[in-house]
Every structure is written in structure tokens, then in C-alpha cells.
Amino acid sequence: MSHSVENRFFAIVCGALLVFVAPLFILFLFLSSERAEKEIKDHITVLLVANAQALAKPLWDLDEDSVTQISATTVAEGAIVRVNVRDLSGQLDVTQSTIPKSYRGNLEAVSRAIIYNGIDGAKKLGTITVYYPELGLFDGLKNEEIVFISIFIFAVLTVFGAALIGNRIFVIQPLMRLTHAIEATRRLGSRHHVDWQSNDEMGRLASSFNDMQSKLQREETELKFAHRRATDTYNLTPAMLFSLDKDDCIAAVSDYWLVATGYDRYEVLGRQFASLVLPESRAEYAERKYSNPGSAARLAVTVKFLCRDERIMDVLILETTAIQDGLSLSVMTDVTELKQSEDRNLRQAITDHLTGLLNRQGFETALDAKINESDLRRCELACLFVDLDRFKWINDNMGHAAGDAALRELVSRLQQCLKPGDIAARLGGDEFAILLLAEDAEARAFDMSALIAEIFETPFDGDARLSASIGIAIYPRQAANAAELLLKSDIAMYAKKRDGKNGAQIFNNSMLDDSRGRAELENNIESGLNEDWFEAYLQPVVNVDDRSIAGFEALMRLHHPQKGILPPARIIEVAEETGSIIRIGNRIMEKAIATFAKLSRFDGMEDTYLAINFSPLQFEPELPVRIAALLSRHDISPRRIVVEITEAVLMDDNPETRMVINELCRYGCRIALDDFGTGYSSLSYINRFPVDIIKIDQSFIRAINDTASDVSAKSRMLVESITTLSHKMNCTVIAEGVETEEECTTLRGMGIDYGQGYLFYRPLHPDNLMKTLTVLQQDRVSPVAQAS
User: Fold this and answer.
1) For residue 207, what pLDDT is reported?
2) 50 — pLDDT class (breaks 50, 70, 90)
3) Which Gene3D superfamilies does this entry report, sorted A to Z (predicted)?
4) Which helix H or strand E contains 348, and what residues bound it?
């Protein structure tokens, strides 16, 4: 208890008394002592003056008895304890003393000269010296001062005692109770409360301690309940839980783990967990376990686990970091079915469901592997990009089921041509790719292309006939990586498509220029649509008899800011391949109809017509509604709109296209068959479709006056036959590409209704056409004839 609170409080109070009260008390004694000493000195001074005068005569007379008597009288004074009288001659030296022999204190001495006043004046005869005891601090105290000091000391002691008693009652006692409660909590784990109630700090401290004890007791109860619940959860949760110690030995397993694996608890506790993992998975287990020892979930690995009944499970193990004492908590999940499902999904993800070949994703993976194999074996790799010709015709005319059956039959025939190590894939739709690894990959690729061509010699189910355009690229001769190899084989395939299809073409660098040109044209098309570079030029169609204007044909032109007018045929070809022809056609149609509405305001132009060319891709179900909205906006009769279609539209015989054409006819638009005579079975279309106008292709018109008489005769016969047949079927006939007066005269003699060509008018910008019509009206030339 040497460092108890009470001893420290006692030390603090004593220290306060020593620091503040003791100095005041000592100062009081010192002042009292000085006062008493001053009084004694003043008294002695008076005595010395009186005795020095009294001793002057006896000392002059050397009267020792008188000197002794006066000295005795002086020493009898209360404060003086010794008197010494001595003359200067040394004949007389008298000393009187009342000092007891046992006195060991110090004496204070005060001397005064003895002066005798005689006839001759004052003479110093000797000295008188008196001695008195040296005063202490308490020697100068008076009775009343002693009483005051006693009262002061009593008051200080009373306050000191009261402080000690109050400290014990109000501080030490509750602290002792608090200490005993804390000791009981520490030693016994109990939650004792302090039995103390007051409104001071000790009361609040005791109340806070009691509240803390209550809260800790509640938390302990909750922890015990949580521990019991965690234990139940560990054992009853339908998950395979287990714990490992720092040596990777099994320290605990849940009941569900035992049920799922078939082991008994005594069989696995203390056993290395790796011993339950199949040997082929142990390396992976060990590698993953120690690869990231500091992560929050340091182990997440799928291994093969051996059950007690020799069953093998694919299990996913997730292990946390150490919890305490080097133990870790792990959960083991049976993912056998999931693993099998993943394998199936992987196969499905890289396999085409229709043909069983690799799909694009699987092909790209196989392509990378084959390139690596090519590098290791130092040989070449050929990539054949195969695209079927006219496959869309099978889907549109025979149905998608027939198309799927044709693809399956094609793959069945193709697999008979493949050798071990060859890889075939369906990239999508009617596109296929084949990888061939060989010393001379080019020769092997052309041999394979010949075999593929033989495949198509036999018709497919339903008497469907197909062919294929094949592009070939060789690694590393023509490509440095997988993406470049596939791209260049694709470029070679498109080059073969443009050259006439049905065959193989190996890549060469000139194809890159074509590809770049095509890419540039695609950019120009997109820029033209975004920046509004497309214009609808109009070319008048005239009556061959009087050269009056019967109508106009809208022609697409792309006016590039730097390059000027770009060739429209190439633009249409690329736009149809990319699908942008629909947006271009809609843009040209809107501008042409808007211009036609302005032209109709000219005198005599009320009955002219506007012919608009439509690509097969434009025949969407929304087309009639779009045309109707435009005509209604510009107040134009549907009868004045001619929809020009090519034989390609009719050849496909698409039900949706037929429906759109019939809808346009019901709305009131007329149908013109463009480039008549260049297709496969043109005459049948006049009977099968609601055609109103036949436009004879310019190749026949140019040949009617050919220098070769046989060519000219045949061409005239064909033109006359087409004209006669068309008239009998109530169709108007228009000759395209009329460029000379001789051609016009010949056509007029054959009964051609209208002509169109550079002889009459070139395709004109709307502004220039407006100016031309204005000039015609000013010249009072009647330019109008109604188209029948």
C-alpha cells in the first residue's frame, strides 16, 4: 500500500503544509525573536548607560567593593547573566556571573566605555561588558503569542484530519470497492457491480463501471450464443467445411463434410489434406496454395478429391487466411456436375451447333495454335476462306430448313476431303475457313480448292446447286500473324467474288490496293451521308417523235468536296454490300421528290413522271408508307411516280419483295423494268409482275447501227420484238442510251415510245435543270408530252 491513493493524498496534504504553512510559522517565530532581541538590547543599553556613569567614580578611586556591588546589581537584571568591569590599567577586573555550569549556549555581549568627568575633562577609565543568552526562535514568544500558535496548530491539525477522514470516506472507500470488483472480474471472470451511490464523480464512475459490467455481461452472453450458433452452423450447414493447421493437416471438419465424403472424423483429423487429393491435382493444389500467401482468400482451386468409397469429386476449395493459432477455415464445394457442364459449354462455345465444326471463336483459338505449330515445325500454314455463292437464293426460295440441310450435307462432303491435322470451321452464315499445315502450303491449298469444287458438282438435296468462292493466304509468306492471315484470305475471297465467283484465288499485294480503295470508298459513302454530299440528278425522258419531255429519271451522284463527282456504279456496288444503300436510296428519293415538286410548277410539267431506281435491299415493308408520306407532303399524285426495278429483284422472287411491289401498285405507283434483256428469263417477268414500262438496255441500242451487218440485224430484230411484245401487253417502251440522231431515227421507225440519252439531255443538277426548263419556256417550245 506504499503507493496507495490514501498515502499519496497524505503526502500531498503534508507537502502543502510544508510548502505553505511551515514558512509562515517560521516567519512568525523569526519576527517574534527579532522583536524580543531588540527589546533586550534597548533595555541593556539603558542599563549600560546608567551603570557606566555609576562606575566612573568608584573606578577612578579603584574602589573594588563599590564596583563589585554595582556589578552584582547589574547582573541581577533578568536578561543579563554576566557582567565584566575592567579598567584600562589592568589593576581592576571584576566579573559577576549567574550562568550555571551546565549551560552550553551562546552568549551575546554588549560593551560600553566608562567615562569620568573630572577637572581635567572627560577621561576613559575602562569598559563595562554585559552578557545575555542568545535568543532562539521560541525564546521571544509571549504568552498570548504561544496561545495563538497553539490555536493555529490545532486548527491545521483539525483540517488535516478532516481531509484524511473525508478522503477515506468519499474517495478511498468507493475506490476500494471498485478495485475489489475489478479484481474479482479479472480473477474469477465474474461481473460484480460496485455498491456505491452518490451524485459526485465517484458516483458517476461507479455507475459507469456498473453499466460497463452490464454491457460486457450482455456481450458475453451474445458471444456465447454466437459461438454456440457458429458451432451449430459449422456442423449443420449443408457445405463441406474444414480447417487446416499451419502444417496443412486437417484440424476440424463439419458433419456435412463427413457425410459428403464418407469418412469418419477420426480417420481424417491430423491427416495431410493433400493426401486426399488425387496425384494429378496435388501439384496444382500446392502451387495455388503458396502462390499468394498473404491474400484475403489465398486459395481458390479446383482439384480432384478422393472419397472414402473411391468416388472422385471435382471440388472447388476456398480457403481464408489464418484465423487464430495458425488455423484456417476452408469450404469445399462439389462442382463435378458444374465441371462437366463447363466442359460441355466450352465445346458448345467453340463449336457450331448446326454443322459440328468449330465456330469463329474456336477457329481463332485453333488458328493461334496452328501458327505456333507452324513455327515449331518450320513449315507453312494455308488459310482457305470459303464463301458459298447463291446460298441466299436457297434460303429465300427453298426455306431456311433447306439451307441448313445443304450446309450439313456440304460439311459431310467436306470432312471426307480433310486429312488428319486439317481444321475446318464455320465462321458464320455461309462462310467457312480451312487450315492446312504443309511444306508446300500453296500447292496443298489449290488441291483442296479443287476437291471443294468437285463437292459442288453434285446437286444438294432438293436439286439445289451451289458453288464457292475461295480466298487463300499463306503464313508466314504473306501474313505475320493470325489476324493478318485471316484478313488476307478474306480479301482474296472477295477478289474472287468480284472476278466472277466459283473458284480459288490466292492473295497478292495488289488486292490490298483494291481493299484500301474499297475502304476509302466506304468512308466517302459514310461521310457523304453525314455531310450531305449526295445529290439527286435528274435526266429527262423525251418523246422520240417531238422531243418533248415526258418524265425524269432520278440518278444518284456523290459530289466529293475535293474529288468531285465519284463513279456511281462502284458506289452502288459497295453500298449494297455494306447495307448503306438503304440510307442512300432514301436520301436520293427525298431529294428527287422535292425537286420534282418544284419542276411540276413549270407550265406544262403537271403530267410528267419521276422514275426512281430502287435496290433490292430497299424493298422493306416500310417503303410504301415512306413513299406515301413524301408524296403527301409535296402534293404529288402516286401515278406520277415510277418505281424502277432490275431483273435481279424479280429473279430472287422474294415473297416480301413481291408484297412491297404489289402494295406500291395498289397505291398507284407504276413499275418500270430497267435494263430489260440482260437477265436470264426477262420475258417471263412481264407476265408474272405488274410491269408498266419496259426500258431496253443501252447495249441493244448501240448495236442497232453496228457496222457489222449481222450484229445490227440481230439487234434490230430483238428491239423490234421487245417493242411489239411490250405494246401487246400494254407496256410503254423506253430506249436507254440514245446518243446519235441515226439511233433516234431507227428507234422511231421501230415504234419506240420514249428515248433517254445524251442525244437529248445529260443527267442535270436540279439547279441546272431549272435553268434549262426556264430557257425552253422562254423560247416557247412545248417540252411536254404525257407518258402513256
Assistant:
1) 78
2) confident
3) 3.30.70.270, 6.10.340.10, EAL domain, PAS domain
4) helix 336-349
Helices first, then strands: H and E counts in the chain: 26, 23
The answer to whether the predicted template modeling score (pTM) of the entire model surpasses 0.90 is no
Nearest one of 94, 96, 76, 97 to 85, comparing CA atoms:
94
For 12-25, write each residue's pLDDT tens digit.
778 777 787 778 77
Residue by residue, DSSP assigns 400-436 as HHHHHHHHHHHHHHHHTTPPTT-EEEEEETTEEEEEE
Cis, bond preceding 174 (omega within 30 deg of 0): no
Cα dihedral 243, 246, 251, 257 sign = positive
Would the CA dihedral through 638, 639, 640, 641 be positive or negative?
Answer: positive
- Alpha-carbon distance of 619 to 628, in angstroms, equals 14
Is the domain spanning 351-507 CATH 3.40.50.80? The answer is no
Distance CA 239, CA 318 (A): 12
609, 605, 544, 640: which is closest to 783 by C-alpha? 605
CA 565 to mean position of chain CA atoms: 47
Give domain limits for the chain: 2-133, 237-341, 351-507, 533-777
Contact 663, 624 (CB under 8 A): yes
Query: How many other C-beta atoms are found inside a 10 Å radius of the C-beta of residue 172?
Result: 17
Strands 693-696 and 732-736: parallel
143-167 vs 5-16: helix crossing angle, rounded to 10: 160
Q: How far apart are CA 519 and CA 580, in angstroms?
A: 14
Task: Pick the closest to residue 254 from 243, 270, 245, 246 (CA basis).
Answer: 243
Can you tell me the distance from the alpha carbon of 566 to that of 582, in angstroms, rounded to the nearest whole number?
Answer: 19
Contact 541, 788 (CB under 8 A): no
Q: Which three cell numbers stand for residue 514?
A: 483494291
Q: What is the fold of 237-341?
A: Beta-Lactamase (3.30.450)
Cell numbers linked to 706: 453496228
The maximal CA–CA distance of the chain, rounded, in angstroms, is 204
533-777 CATH:
3.20.20.450
351-507 and 533-777, same CATH topology: no
Query: Whole-angstrom Cα distance, residue 472 to residue 494?
Result: 11
Dihedral sign (CA 622, 623, 628, 629): positive
CATH architecture of 2-133: 2-Layer Sandwich (3.30)
Q: Which grid coordinates are listed for 215?
A: 454491457
Give the closest residue to 751 by CA, choosing from 451, 446, 543, 477.
543
Distance CA 293, CA 249 (A): 17
Q: Which of 776, 392, 416 is nearest to 605 (CA)?
A: 776
Ordered DSSP codes for 529-598: HHHT-EEEEEEEEEETTT--EEEEEEEEEEEETTTEEEPHHHHHHHHHHHTTHHHHHHHHHHHHHHHHHH
Three cell numbers written together for 529 = 451521308
Q: Which is nearest to 743 in space by CA: 726, 759, 761?
A: 759
Q: Is the pLDDT of residue 2 over 60?
A: no
